[in-house]
């Protein structure tokens, strides 16, 4: 089928249309196809088909022949017949809105099928003109005029706000429409005027209008309304602290907003024109208080805010470098004054302390750099002191031990003092080793090879004084002559022990004999026992003699 054809049936028949009429809608400027007998198949005994309208015949077609154009008017060059007997009308205009009749002669019957032709045309475009410059809340204002042209039938225009249709209510929304017909083409132009009473929420609203499936470009309006409320805002980078700048901003809900304000700074009025802000520089704790802003031409419309300036004071005693003597006390005082809750932390030589340091009796290990950090929110204060504990060096211990190879003696001298003590020995050694100086303590080791028994002195000293300790050190090994003397001494000792034992036994036996004489006992048995004892003594002496030879 050809483009631009729409078919609407009022009365539908199975083969004929009697006293009824079909309606066909065609599109303006296109070729329209008007069906015969609603597009039903041709009868088998068809003799002739003819199309006509109120002003005359258009064309005819006999069976098995080509269609012949009969029209002599404006349709002469615009009509033709399709294969299925439909009437084709080229370049349709509104003047083609007529009733066309298809007459079919078949056998002895003549049937006529009237068709009413309607021509439609969509509007060429939709636009909003005569826009209002602004909308005032509560005041009816002609928002604009929506226009669409070259349409048939006349287009119906709908207004939208934020894509939702606006319905006239005769109060806040009043819509009036007007239609004009072009005398030459018969096409219509429709205009629609919207009178609208704005609300505060319409500030960012988008308005459009549309006809059929065509929408205009969205438009928005400046909505004006008086100020009903103002608010004071404080603008700063982080919490307000002493030394910072504080900007006060007065915001009004009117549109357009006021351009000039009065700022009340702790009882002093400052007038600001062409701006809604005022900056207070280098605030202090005395800047704490109530601040206000108001409209110049309406002092009753104001807002206020209580503003607190945060501050933190800290004082540490002592500070800097502190020199103290060993065993003394040190009073430590930390004073704080702040506008809020504080947190205090201590470090010694960058190491965190669990609590505040106390110095009742100073030791060398108390020396170091102490730092205190006091925080209150984003406010941070720091201070520090360096404690140096000095004193006369004291030797805590001297010791000796044999080396692993047994050929040397290792002497140790442990001392405390500050500044760092110097360690000196009364003898020279083969090697010396000194430990790191930590918390006032130092350990010095000296390796020696004594050839004779010695009394060694360890001396420690610094600018405050000195201390000494002694230790007795014996030799580690013996020479060949000494060894011989030792062996001889052992042998002589053994011999003397043997003689003493023998003499003691002899005296015992002598007393025994005297006793037997007194009791009248026989001497034979005693003489025999005496002989046995003498033999044992001789054996013992011979054994000791052999040991001496070895």
TrEMBL record:
Top-level taxon of the source organism: Eukaryota
Leader peptide range in chain numbering: none
Protein topology in the membrane: Single-pass type I membrane protein
InterPro entries, alphabetized: CD80_C2-set (IPR013162), Ig-like_dom (IPR007110), Ig-like_dom_sf (IPR036179), Ig-like_fold (IPR013783), Ig_sub (IPR003599), Ig_sub2 (IPR003598), Immunoglobulin_dom (IPR013151), Surface_Rcpt/Adhesion_Mol (IPR051116)
Keywords: Adaptive immunity, Cell adhesion, Cell membrane, Cell projection, Disulfide bond, Glycoprotein, Immunity, Immunoglobulin domain, Membrane, Repeat, Transmembrane, Transmembrane helix
Compartment annotation: Cell membrane; Cell projection, Axon; Cell projection, Dendrite
Gene3D superfamilies to which the protein is assigned, alphabetical: Immunoglobulins
Chain intervals with Basic and acidic residues compositional bias: 519-550
SUPFAM superfamilies: Immunoglobulin (SSF48726)
Pfam families per record: C2-set_2, ig, Ig_3
GO biological process: adaptive immune response; cell adhesion
Bilayer-crossing regions: 486-508
Region described as Disordered: spans on this chain: 512-550
One of the record's GO cellular component terms: plasma membrane
Major localization listed first in the record, in broad terms: membrane
Ig-like domain mapped to chain residues: 29-104, 123-220, 226-308, 393-474
Protein name, per record: Activated leukocyte cell adhesion molecule b
The encoding gene: LOC115206394
